[in-house]
């Protein structure tokens, strides 16, 4: 089978619009010709989240009657929304100050033939500050890891990861909401499932108890203190508890509940993979893809509105078309992880399931051909994601929908950027 072309396929969008996946949605929004359609969707009901834990997260906006309709007609405002307006404004927007680029572009080569959108280098000032704060949180607030794990923690480069994935975050404090959750989720994966003492044996009990740090136990006075004490018993639970406490102070109730449900999905995916490991079972390709729809990055892009300082109303988030967009985004980004972590997992003890391994086993392909076929699966998912997101942008020309879709697309792009550039963790196989 011939190797794919060394450069990624180009988007069918005009060159100026194809620089990032989020621009796909701007293109679609521009085709929404009837702004009155926006008022056919029930206006969002603003929530009243508790005051945020830091000073630089803006307070919730107080709205007057009719403000939602006026806001829809006016279009969104704030960092990252200049391209979302559905009608021409009288005055052109003031160009935003461009972010400070990193002094030296990050290293790493993209997978040849992998469909993706390059992103600008993340703001170096934000990257450094997020990195400083997350390390202080990990060490001082939740006692996350022992000294011998420090190199791995630093090599994860979570500051660069989250700044790349959330370019519209108004402040560093907003970025920290996502960063704490990302680190906590990886602590659970590493300590319960994978590298640092993880095992499929007993995983269900560990995950359920950890999940109560996100979705609190409501029980009698006799047993409540024992549960509360248990949340400090290990690093994953300490991290979950703290990250969620910060999150709920900045998020609306429906946003917090959305995250709880997405985390339950993630944990169910962990359990399926663990069950297969216990029985040494290699699933069919479609079964593996079903597992990866749950054991994937979904909880990360779906908090883009909280990190962006706004809220996608629950009824719009629950629309079947929106749910399909979110699922496709999560599935595509997770296959990116399978592809970039391929050599890392091959070098680890035991057999690690990923899409190339499952394709090779189940379809009788060579390692190289299975890997290249997995690249094609990713590309198909990406094209479907972009097409479905553009369709939703046209069908629901509501500013919060437009911005949410752009945020998910930006997360997809930033996730690829981080995998490509994190040469501390990942290297490509010699298939080209």
N- to C-terminal separation? 11 Å
Tally of alpha and pi helices: 18
Structural class: mainly alpha
**CATH architecture name of the domain at 120-421:** Orthogonal Bundle
Overall, the morphology is globular
Q: Hey, roughly how much beta strand do the residues contain?
A: under 5%
How many β-strand stretches? 0
Helix content: 55-70%
Major beta sheet summary: none
Radius of gyration, rounded?
Answer: 22 Å
CATH topology of the domain at 120-421: Farnesyl Diphosphate Synthase
Question: What is the CATH top level name of the domain at 120-421?
Answer: Mainly Alpha
User: How would you name the CATH homologous superfamily of the domain at 120-421?
Assistant: Farnesyl Diphosphate Synthase
Q: Catalogue the unreliable spans.
A: 1-19, 27-104
Helix-strand sequence: HHHHHHHHHHHHHHHHHH
Provide mean pLDDT, rounded: 83
What does this molecule look like?
There is one protein chain. The chain is mostly helical and 432 residues long. It has a domain at 120-421: Farnesyl Diphosphate Synthase. It is built from 18 helices and no strands. The longest helix has 29 residues, at 367-395. The protein is globular and about 60 Å long.
């Amino acid at each position: 089978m011939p190797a794919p072309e060394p450069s990624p396929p180009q988007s069918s969008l005009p060159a100026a619009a194809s620089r990032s996946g989020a621009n796909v949605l701007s293109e679609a929004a521009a085709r929404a010709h009837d702004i009155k359609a926006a008022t056919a969707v029930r206006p969002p009901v603003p929530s009243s989240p508790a005051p945020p834990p830091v000073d630089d997260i803006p307070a919730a906006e107080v709205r007057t009657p009719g403000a939602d309709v006026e806001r829809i007609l006016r279009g969104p405002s704030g960092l990252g929304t200049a391209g979302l307006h559905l009608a021409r404004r009288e005055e052109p927007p003031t160009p935003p100050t461009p972010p400070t680029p990193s002094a030296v572009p990050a290293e790493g080569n993209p997978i040849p033939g992998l469909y993706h959108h390059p992103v600008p280098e993340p703001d170096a000032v934000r990257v450094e500050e997020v990195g400083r704060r997350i390390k202080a949180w990990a060490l001082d607030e939740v006692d996350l890891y022992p000294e011998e794990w420090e190199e791995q923690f630093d090599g994860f480069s979570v500051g660069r990861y989250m700044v790349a994935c959330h370019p519209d975050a108004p402040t560093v404090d907003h970025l920290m909401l996502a960063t704490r959750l990302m680190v906590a989720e990886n602590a659970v994966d590493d300590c319960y499932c994978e590298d640092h003492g993880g095992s499929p044996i007993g995983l269900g009990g560990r995950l359920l108890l950890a999940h109560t740090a996100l979705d609190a136990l409501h029980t009698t006075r006799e047993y409540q203190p024992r549960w509360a004490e248990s949340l400090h018993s290990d690093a994953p639970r300490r991290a979950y508890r703290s990250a969620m406490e910060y999150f709920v102070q900045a998020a609306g109730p429906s946003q917090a509940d959305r995250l709880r449900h997405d985390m339950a999905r993630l944990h169910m995916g962990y359990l399926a993979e663990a069950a297969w490991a216990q029985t040494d079972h290699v699933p069919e390709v479609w079964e593996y893809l079903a597992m990866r729809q749950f054991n994937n990055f979904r909880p990360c892009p779906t908090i883009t509105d909280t990190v962006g300082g706004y809220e996608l109303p629950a009824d719009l988030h629950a629309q079947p078309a929106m749910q399909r967009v979110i699922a496709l985004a999560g599935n595509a980004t997770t296959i990116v992880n399978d592809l970039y972590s391929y050599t890392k997992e091959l070098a680890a003890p035991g057999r690690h399931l990923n899409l190339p391994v499952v394709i090779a086993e189940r379809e009788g392909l060579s390692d190289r051909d299975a890997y290249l076929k997995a690249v094609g699966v990713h590309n198909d998912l990406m094209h479907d994601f972009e097409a479905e997101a553009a369709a939703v942008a046209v069908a629901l020309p509501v500013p919060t929908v437009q911005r949410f879709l752009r945020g998910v697309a930006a997360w997809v792009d930033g996730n690829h950027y981080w995998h490509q550039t994190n040469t501390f963790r990942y290297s490509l196989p010699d298939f080209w």
